[in-house]
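Checklist before submission:
- one chain only
- standard amino acids only
- sequence pasted in full

Submission:
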Amino acid sequence: LKDAFPFQDGELLSPVAVVEGKAPEQTQDQSYLDPHQWKLPSTYVTSTQPGTKPTTIPDPKVFANVFSIPTEFEPVRVETLLAYPDASHAAVHLALLECFRNLRASARALDVGVVQPPSYNEKSTAGLSSETAPLPESQRWDFLIKLAVTRFMAWWDNIDMVLNHASVYSHHAGSDVALQLTKDYLPPLDILLVWYSLMLNTDAYDAACQAHGSNVARLKNLCFPWPAIRDVIDMDKMEYELPRAAQNLFRNLSSQSCDILTYLDSPPAYTDSGKVSFKTDLFSEVKKHDSFINESHQRLWIRSPALYGSLGRAGGDYLDFHLREPNVVEDDVLESLSFGVQLFWRTHRLFPRQYKTFLVEIRKKKGEPSSKDDLKIVLDGEDEALESSQCCCCWTCERIRDDVPEFYHAQLSSVPSSPTTAVSPDTVQKQLSSLSSEQIRQIQDDLGFYLAVEDARKRQIPLPTRPPTAAEKDAERIAKQRKKEAGYLPGLNEYVEVLPDGTRKIRQRKGKGNRYYYMMAFVFGSVCIQPLSETQPNLMIPAPISTLFDLPEQSIEFATNMDRSRDL
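Returned file contents:
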């Protein structure tokens, strides 16, 4: 289970058991221990009884703002610049990285034979024939990438047709808003990986757009389609599932199967059309991101109990870094930054137009240091960034930071002499001293439960459940209150009355002519309906208008809540 729960150094410290009908065990006070040595709860309930809330990880609420992608062409305001990237975009990015890793894992299942030419010697031998040998496992992923590059080029040749179709059938915002792809226009996952890698290389992507020749601005204005990607990823299995419309579109454009493994079984005849030539080595661009995909899976933030908090802190760190270093060269520092800052930086660069505008504006605001004091602030900021990259961001430390934001624990280094190999126990305990024993127990329970869920996924058994936590209860209560305030609004011929105790009620206006309003409500709201026939009572059609003049009493009450007040 080392991969299932990314403790520091990848060491799993407690086994997990999921027992049906048994309540989770209580942990003892371990506040005096290093958090990485905590013994976590290891037994949780598996319940399939009706009414039991299913376990959903990640929480869908973390993706709520994925649609906040600035698409206007007008001059960008500060609030528009800060709308992207959001924690929701970064969360979808994490899920996509898991899909990329699963694609790489599927490459191991490739049954590809390599034709070995016959060997020759000085003596003439009749009947020489080629032999087929299986492709070594170490080369299968590279083979799949090369095939994906070929498929991407066929898709990129037809990108104008994709965008033209999308602009007619899915884009309803007018010419003042940039076109973005919906789920019905997404390419297969292997092609998406190549597009992802190309877009992260700003210069190469600009060159590819320019070389395309047709409507260059539209290509450059594309944002990586996070909302559409969110819609097609099965968050439980981390699988990328294209809708039928997208599959048909790709098949019609390229005469290829969407599934690259199916494509290998019966590849169609293919010739290079030569429409677009790439000066960039797309294979190398894809391979460049293998290490980041590995790191993302090792940390597995997308399954972490601190996902929302981790992304919020990473987004703040990313913005702070750019404020300190507006003129930094990406390639010089990217690998030295923390995982969270790298994630947001990559997410930002996957919207090229927004990223360029952001850099221009932030450089205007920042300028050069005007004094020695300002220069010292910048240099101190560089030390903070370095410290952040050395800070442990495993599940345990990230969950503690939800309650103690300044908590610091260094990562264990592979170099024994490194000064970051240990943190003083007194320092750790001092940081944890602000937590109550109840808070520590809740942190431990969250970690143990999320570990149990990952273990159940790995074993393909029902996911464990647990009662709502205090934080979940508070969030549910607030959500219900907001829904109540937004949902109970005055309707036709009604008004709001505020009582002396602050309670608000919706009252019905009394007066002549109300019957006319009831009739109009039914006409325009299509509320009045009747069965299609006695034999098919469930098939309903709008009733004739003549029936409105003799409405039954219950219909009037349904339409207007007549003679009743409603609490807000």
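Reviewer check: Residues 216 and 280 are 18 Å apart (CA to CA).
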